[in-house]
């Protein structure tokens, strides 16, 4: 990121409404920072923290750094393909417009 890009992005912001609310949904901590309006486009700014995901990612990183074999997969995990470290998306029902 450079200064020009940052100035361009900030100059296009029409309005900012800070909210500062925190909620826990399905074990995922979500902090709603606020709303940002770019002309007629409104965006929600939020931070998510998934404790289970953080623990799995940390365990995988430690195993990789120490050269330890990963936890053996169960047949169910192997069949379902549950090997990835996907974080829970609590906003899965919210439509996302791609520009």
TrEMBL record:
Protein name in UniProt: Uncharacterized protein
Organism name: Desulfitobacterium hafniense
Taxonomy of the source species: Bacteria, Bacillati, Bacillota, Clostridia, Eubacteriales
